[in-house]
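Suppose a colleague, Dr. K., hands you the sequence of a protein chain of 174 amino acids and asks what its three-dimensional shape might be. Before reaching for any lab equipment, you can write down a predicted structure in token form. Begin with the sequence itself:
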Amino acid sequence: MSIENDVTFGTAGGRDLELDIYRPPSDIPRRSAVIQLHGGAFRVGSRAMMTPRAEALSALGYVCLPADYRLLHEAPWPAQLHDVKAAIRWTRENADQLGIEADRIVTQGNGAGGHLAMTSGINGSPDWEGDSGSPDASDACPALVQTRSQKRSHHLRIELCSGIADRFFSRCGK
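The predicted structure, expressed as tokens, is then:
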């Protein structure tokens, strides 16, 4: 596995928005990306909280991208959703460099990040989109995953999320 830290995917509110890239071992085919979003009630947290999940899913062959978003003390809602959509657009725009297929991007999160993962599927309203990242790229995601952060079931949930994504993409003929 290789890790690239502090990659800027956009700017908003006067600061860079960053993510980390966890690439699977080179002998595992890379086709799907998982944008991972931390919990923390929109008030605390950072993408570093997603490191264990990024490492686990990357070992299964996924390119994982734990991403930051602005917290409530930095910007009111829906700025957090704008940031997530910027990460999706940036990921799609950089699919070739990431070694993924542009139509195989998943959002995954727990707590507040789970809420963001699920609401990232709202499309079509300019109020929900934002303009950071790669504004001309689509922010549509074919799969949205909300997880829980209970440590006891962490590995089971990683396998479950992996299986859900695999089944979804196999039904789509990808």
